[in-house]
Amino acid sequence: MSNRYVEMGLSAPVNLTWEVSLACNLRCSHCLSSSGEPAEGELSTAEALDLVEQLHSGGVFQVNFGGGEPFLRPDFEEILAACHARGIMTCISTNGTLIGPERVARLAESRLVAIQVSMDGARRETCDAIRGKGVYDKAIEAIKLLAASSIPTSINTVLTAQNAGEIPAMHELARSLGVSLRVSRFRPSGRGADNWDDLRPTPAQLLAFSDWLARSGDVRTGDSFFSLTSQERQGLGLNLCGAAKLTCCVGPTGNMYPCAFLQTDRFKAGSLRDNTFKEIWDDSEIYASFRSLRIHSCEECQRFDQCHGGCPAVAWHLKNDINGGDPECLERCVTSIADEARTAKAA
Amino acid sequence: MAAAGIQLHPACRVRQEGFGLLFYDSRGPRLLFAATGSLLHPDFFKTVRERDELPEGLSDREQTVLQKFMSQLLEKGFLREQPIR
Question: How much is the ipTM here?
Fold first, then answer.
């Protein structure tokens, strides 16, 4: 029922990812946007505030800020305040290194912000190997400050081959700190593409994680449009990729894309310097193509009702084809493991 | 004593869509798609309303349907009880 309404086309996204800057003080090996230095021509403060007004008049409920490290942008709290003044809810994805008591106190005042602190291992060595030396301790410090405030806080972990065995321990760590855990899928974009072979979880790890997730009701997954537990997602009936239907992405220079993992020229839906947000959302051919995307090759699969072909971004990055279904879906993991077993037996 | 009214929960938002109203609850997050057409405007939820209050000019059948819908919104937490002062 809900899917039908979504496929009819909504007047605006429910939420969107806004990568406010590519500037980052870390160089994480899985970074989806290869962040480091700011992008040339990032939106000015006036342009950013104008966008906030457009999002408000369009009826966008929530903005998820990412980057780069959003807090490196000097006017970031001004942009946040503009969102909150208009009743727009916000969520900030941060590495936690720039979170101090004064900032936490300021952010808590709005009561409209949630914060995700990135951590990629329950062990210091595992996390720092991906995010950089000393980052684990700084992130823990930030989480403790946030957990003591009224700000809803979560740890966001990208599942990799290196930390797959530590996810239950991450869950325990989050509990002990008084925050929730969200586990995101590793996708081969940005530096993540460069390090894909090293960091990519094996099919066995993905299946083990899926089983564990099904038993861990309060853990959220960072799928392509929402942070939801599997139960909440089933309740919604929104078992499809939300890109260009429920969500979209605004890049640092005002380019719009279907999602944060498809920030390439091939998937550029438009520029906010040429058109309004509403014009791009309503009229972009790229968005139209995502709204009508049907993964016919997956329709006979027993899991089709649960995933509808999976993540088009992974399909694009691994196979250069968004129509071909997710090459790393759970069903293919099962097949891959069975094939390996047969090969080993034959040998 | 103040009478009990209802109001959109502070964690929720609502907007008009072609099919009716789209509710968003940031606590989940959850969405609720309500095929209310143009019977209810999102502005209706901006202020505290009496429990059985509805827009004017509705037929008996529309009133019955919307009363049930409002009860469901309250039950699902998209609306909350609030004293009318």
Answer: 0.91
Cross-chain residue pair A61–B17, CB shorter than 8 Å: no
Per-residue pLDDT reduced to its tens digit, A114-142: 999 999 999 999 999 999 999 999 999 99
Q: Is A236 on the interface with B (CB under 8 A)?
A: yes
| CB-closest option in A5, A89, A228 to B26 | A89
List CB contacts (< 8 A) between A59 and chain B.
15-16
A212-235 core/surface letters (b: 16 or more CB in 10 A; e: else): ebeebeebbbbbbbbbbbbebbee
Per-residue pLDDT, A206 = 87
pTM (two decimals): 0.92
d(C-alpha A164, C-alpha A148), whole Å: 28
* Chain A residues in contact with B24 (beta carbon < 8 A): 14, 61-62
CATH code, residues B4-80: 3.90.930
With CB atoms and an 8 Å threshold, state whether B33 touches A2: yes
Å between B38 CA and nearest CA of chain A:
15
Segment 25-64 of chain B within 8 Å of chain A by CB: 26, 28-31, 33
Mean pLDDT over A212-223 rounds to 79
SS (H, E, C) chain A: CHHHHHHHCCCCCCEEEEEEECECCCCCCCCCCCCECCCCCCCCHHHHHHHHHHHHHHCCCEEEEEECCHHHCCCHHHHHHHHHHCCCEEEEEECCCCCCHHHHHHHHHHCCEEEEEECCCCCHHHHHHHHCCCHHHHHHHHHHHHHCCCCCEEEEEECCCCCHHHHHHHHHHHHHHCCEEEEECCCCCCHHHHCHHHHCCCHHHHHHHHHHHHHCCCCEEECCCCEECHHHHHHHCCCCCCECCCECEECCCCEEECCHHHCCHHHCCEECCCCCHHHHHHHCHHHHHHHCCCCHHHCCCCCHHHHCCCCHHHHHHHHCCCCCCCCCCHHHHHHHHHHHHHHHHHC
Residue numbers in B near A226 (CB within 8 A): 29
Query: Could you state, in order of their start, the residue ranges of all structural domains in chain B?
Result: 4-80
Residues of B in contact with A1 (CB under 8 A): 33
Tell me, yes or no, if B18 comes closer than 8 A to chain A by beta carbon: yes
